[in-house]
Amino acid sequence: MVSLKREREAEVDDDDSEDGVTAKIGRGRVVEDRRSRHCPYLDTINRSVLDFDFEKLCSISLSHINVYACLICGKYFQGRGLKSHAYTHSVQFTHHVFLNLHTLKFYCLPDNYEIIDSSLEDITYVLKPTFTKQHIAGLDKQGKLYRAYDGTTYLPGIVGLNNIKANDYANVVLQAFSNVPPLRNYFLEEENYRGIRRPPGDIMFLLVQRFGELMRKLWNPRNFKAHVSPHEMLQAVVLCSKKNFQITKQGDAVDFMTWFLNALHGALGGTKKKPSIITKAFQGSMRIFSKKLPHPDLPPEEKEALLVTEEYQEQMSESTFLFLTLDLPTAPLYKDEKEQLIIPQVPLFNILGKFNGSTEKEYKTYKENFLKRFQLTKLPPYLIFCIKRFTKNNFFVEKNPTIVNFPITNVDLREYLTEEAQATEKSTTYDLVANVVHDGKPTEGAYRIHVLHHGTGKWYEMQDLQVTDILPQMITLSEAYIQIWKRQETDDDTNNHTGV
């Protein structure tokens, strides 16, 4: 009851008509406080301690209502009236300049007047970066290095993400998607999704808002530091996934990516029939040929009799996909003459054979077995491969260490399309733009990512806060887990598309 009363006081205390910002004179005319443009405390602001990546709540009351950042120490406090935490802090520590994290207005406390000064614009831009269509259109055309306030240089988009405890599995997926231009461009402009209506009480749209905020921070050319904390984004993930994905517990990057893509598609108003930016960028389609198999324990005569019945004839169905799962051959466990385990290698085109329309694979369910083969009917602008490295049984998770040999550019997938699709698909050649790697043991390993910076044509490796450049030929030596490939286009308007 007491905290509720305090919050209400903080709201009342925040009414601009009651503070020292303006005064009404005569017939409703408003004049500005003389001190607003001449605050003597602006030189006490310490930009090096300002960090707006964390949840916007008061450090004392833990309330989200009317939260102000102290620009001298960087801490968050509620309200600015006489009994508020921000007011008390200003008197106790003689810290005078505060920023309302919601209205983006600056105030001097305890005098309680609004500060109007253009030199503070860099602070509001870090808190809430904005991008014009012209700026977005030029992101992939130049590779200019920018200098952060702390002196470090960085390329926007090639920015480290803080590993709070065990969230590197999510970081690499977020980094990968931030380097897919149509997805990035859509989320850089809040107007693209601001008008989407969601049912009352629906929390999933929080995922869209937080992802947009993270994109704008990752691509901000005026950052105070050359790394970003995904704290608010990950809190939304924990909440919206009902704690299936945690910050403090290692997860699987493919599981997270699958959930995240489908959750974003739904939150953006997408359905099976209605597209979203997710399906426009990543959705392809395939034909699935499925044939039921008789139980292996049956006598041969019974098997033959069943195989001619209608139930055991091959059925064809059409299906869409957001990514393709590539199966690795079973890793042999033999050693060489020096007793070293030999790590097997396999060409990418061998494991892509799953989709050639003739390779059959057996799938076992609890009751029945099926033979399936696949053939692609439509290729998306951006194609995601998930290389199946982990197999789970009742007791433990095994990891297949097989190295996949793949070219970085010019992977032609025409032979995996149906004849009709081969006639209609203009471009079937892809170049790699992101490569997620899993190192170490199945349950306690670490993730890193290789991304192509489109403006410079250079490759970079990112592992949490570490960002280093890498030679393309080194990428193929890694235990690739998720890959994003970009279709080569001459007149593809998807790259320039920012709206749905």
Automatic annotation (TrEMBL):
UniProt domain USP: residue ranges: 159-488
The record's annotation in SMART domains points to: ZnF_UBP
Region forming the signal peptide? none
What GO biological process terms does the UniProt entry carry, in alphabetical order?
Answer: cell division; protein deubiquitination; spliceosomal complex assembly
> Transmembrane segments in this chain: where?
none
What Enzyme Commission number does this protein have? 3.4.19.12
Q: Which GO terms describe its molecular function?
A: cysteine-type deubiquitinase activity; zinc ion binding
Domain UBP-type, first and last residues per copy: 37-134
Q: From start to end residue, where is composition biased (Acidic residues)?
A: 10-19
Subcellular compartments: Nucleus
Q: Which domain of life is it from?
A: Eukaryota
Q: Which residues does the annotated region (Disordered) include?
A: 1-20
Q: Name one GO cellular component term.
A: spliceosomal complex
Q: Which InterPro entries match?
A: Papain-like_cys_pep_sf, Peptidase_C19_UCH, Ub_carboxyl-term_hydrolase, USP, USP39, Znf_RING/FYVE/PHD, Znf_UBP
Q: Which keywords does the record carry?
A: Cell cycle, Cell division, Hydrolase, Isopeptide bond, Metal-binding, mRNA processing, mRNA splicing, Nucleus, Phosphoprotein, Spliceosome, Ubl conjugation, Ubl conjugation pathway, Zinc, Zinc-finger
Catalysed transformations (reactions): Thiol-dependent hydrolysis of ester, thioester, amide, peptide and isopeptide bonds formed by the C-terminal Gly of ubiquitin (a 76-residue protein attached to proteins as an intracellular targeting signal)
- SUPFAM superfamilies from the xrefs? Cysteine proteinases, RING/U-box
Q: How does this chain assemble? A: The U4/U6-U5 tri-snRNP complex is a building block of the precatalytic spliceosome (spliceosome B complex). Component of the U4/U6-U5 tri-snRNP complex composed of the U4, U6 and U5 snRNAs and at least PRPF3, PRPF4, PRPF6, PRPF8, PRPF31, SNRNP200, TXNL4A, SNRNP40, SNRPB, SNRPD1, SNRPD2, SNRPD3, SNRPE, SNRPF, SNRPG, DDX23, CD2BP2, PPIH, SNU13, EFTUD2, SART1 and USP39, plus LSM2, LSM3, LSM4, LSM5, LSM6, LSM7 and LSM8.
Q: Give the family, as the similarity comment puts it.
A: Belongs to the peptidase C19 family.
Q: What is this protein called?
A: Ubiquitin carboxyl-terminal hydrolase 39
